[in-house]
Amino acid sequence: MNFCSQCGKPTHYRVPDGDNRERHVCDHCDTIHYQNPRIIAGCIPTSGDRVLLCKRAIEPRRGYWTLPAGFLENGETILQGALRECHEEAGAQLNTPSLCGIYDIPHISQVYVFYQGPLSNDDFRAGDESLEVELFQEREVPWEALAFPVITLALEHYFADRQATSSGVRSATVSRRLR
Ligand code: ZN
Q1: CA–centroid distance, residue 108 to ligand 1 (Å)
Q2: What is the residue range of 154's domain?
Q3: What is the Å distance from ligand 1's center to 10 Cα?
Q4: pTM, two decimal places
Q5: HEC assignment per residue over the chain
């Protein structure tokens, strides 16, 4: 951020009085522009032993496969955001979604939250941000063509936990970068 969104004057990156972190500060109108991690809400839609993946139609990572997920909007719960993304990107709806994973990605200041649940029907289709939408068994997943490390991790956890008797919520910090 180079210019203040309140008054348009240049901002400075420094520690404000009484703070202990650098922020974008406007010395003209005294606004401190806080920047905090963004939340990405996503789904792991399932059908029997298969999971639904979307081939990205947009950058970054166009042409790579991902789970339906996107930035949470203001006024939305994380579950609402996850279901909205599932509908927008895959035209799909979930029955009984349950929280399954929380992934911190501090080096890019993002937090992913995933819900899993069975598709309510097979009536899915590619939305505007997807080239294709398809169901994959574990051995069919295009592991080498997944869009982001967090997607790989969430899918690994899903398949590892699928046989488990107790359903828990996974949490992890994602530090690995794209190969
Ligand atoms: Zn200002």
Answers
A1: 26
A2: 38-173
A3: 8
A4: 0.90
A5: CCECCCCCCECEEECCCCCCCCEEECCCCCCEECCCCEEEEEEEEEECCEEEEEEECCCCCCCCEECCEEECCCCCCHHHHHHHHHHHHHCCCECCCEEEEEEEEHHHCEEEEEEEEEECCCCCCCCCCEEEEEEECHHHCCHHHECCHHHHHHHHHHHHHCCCCCCCCEEEECCCCCC
